[in-house]
Specification:
The protein has about 250 residues and is an alpha+beta fold. It folds into two domains: about 170 residues, Immunoglobulin-like (Sandwich), CATH 2.60.40.10; about 60 residues. The strands form two sheets. Strands 2, 3, 5, 6 and 7 form a five-stranded antiparallel β-sheet that branches. Strands 1-4 form a two-stranded antiparallel ribbon. A hairpin with a 2-residue loop joins strand 5 and strand 6. It is elongated, with a radius of gyration of 40 Å. The relative contact order is 0.14.
Length: about 250
């Protein structure tokens, strides 16, 4: 009886400790990855060995704008929000990278730091809950949540503020190619028109120049023929013209 009581007590303690691991866990940027933060994405360390007591429960990554994460309640996170709704400005957060908790198993300590999650790595074609690119004029936070059929089951803490590298701003629907200003586009258009005009001029010069060359060659051949007639013996000249009269 004492043994069963001890085993039960150990089980309760183990479950309580693991549960507390989830609630106190803070998502971390992967420090061993060189490009752990770019102007479009960031890389988190996988939360391995954190959800081991719930291997079949769904785990989402929630990405939120830093300016509004503190106003997002756990009950609000119970309904998954697609990236498209966030991108269109309907929400300040979204859910992505849905997996079962068993996908984050316990690993040897020497390999745990090599398992990472990149946030913002997809182009999002046809997938509402995609892992879409981020905008570098915003700062972000992330957390992991467990959802079951009843709603949110457990959640980690929010990460620290994540500041993306400042580079080219997100182009969105501006219609301009990435990395080119309006002045560059106008200059490129003008140069293209000038190149087309120059090409047409060269083609026209070749056409008319070729005609002029043919005309000069014809005139030169005609002069050469007249000269041959002038130096032809008179008897030959007469006989040729006599044959012309006979034929006619």
């Amino acid at each position: 009886m004492d043994l069963c009581l001890k085993l039960g007590l150990l089980l309760v303690i183990y479950t309580a400790v693991n549960a507390s691991d989830i609630s106190v866990y803070i998502p971390q940027i992967a420090q061993k990855i060189t490009t752990n933060v770019t102007d479009r994405s960031f890389v988190l360390v996988q939360p391995n060995c954190i959800f081991t007591q719930y291997p079949t429960t769904n785990v989402w990554v929630v990405v939120a704008l830093n300016k509004s994460f503190s106003t997002i309640s756990d009950s609000a996170l119970s309904t998954p929000i697609p990236y498209s709704s966030y991108r269109n400005g309907l929400y300040n957060y979204y859910h992505t990278l849905l997996v079962s908790a068993g996908k984050y198993p316990c690993l040897p300590s020497d390999s745990t730091s090599n398992k990472v999650i990149q946030i913002g790595s997809e182009t999002c074609k046809g997938n509402q809950f995609c892992n879409g690119v981020l905008s570098n004029n915003q700062t972000y936070r992330a957390k992991f949540i467990l959802l079951n059929s009843s709603g949110i089951f457990d959640t980690t803490k929010w990460s620290n503020e994540i500041i993306l590298q400042q580079g080219k701003s997100f182009q969105g629907n501006t219609g301009l190619p990435s990395g080119r200003s309006g002045g560059m586009i106008v200059l490129t258009s003008i140069l293209s028109v000038l190149m087309a005009f120059l090409l047409l001029s060269v083609i026209a010069a070749l056409i008319f120049g070729g005609r002029d060359l043919c005309w000069k060659r014809t005139m030169l051949n005609q002069k050469h023929s007249d000269r041959n007639m002038d130096f032809m013996p008179r008897s030959t000249y007469r006989s040729r013209y006599d044959n012309m009269y006979l034929v006619s």
